[in-house]
Specification:
Belongs to the RbfA family. Monomer. Binds 30S ribosomal subunits, but not 50S ribosomal subunits or 70S ribosomes. With about 140 residues, the chain is an alpha+beta fold. Helices cover about 55% and strands about 20% of the residues.
Amino acid sequence: MLNHYKLNHYNGQNYRQLRVGECIRRVLSSVLKSGKLYDPILSNVPITLSEVSLSSDMRNATVWVIPSVNEQTEKILPILKRASGQLSSEVARAVRMKFTPRLIFKRDTAFDSSQRMADILKDPVIRQDVENAIK
């Protein structure tokens, strides 16, 4: 028998949190693409917003950021944090909610982890062990 909780939740978030998080991600992406934030660093570096995770009360939103250039990460996150008020007001205009969530920007390390795993699997010794395990 399938667990009802697993069907309606993903990473601890329910369907509504996921849907609202995706709406917020789209709004933030369009704001960053349009250049409404007047910062020379943000205008020159492409930024990927991988996900927006909402807290259970939907008052806090963690925005997971993947900068395209790793050297810029330390510069980009403080700039986004400073601009969170302006970004929140853009979200408030575009997404109808009782409360606009507080935006918290964090670096998404999932891509780095998957890249490190791919590099490990390319190692000839590891590849041989994997092939032997499959047989």
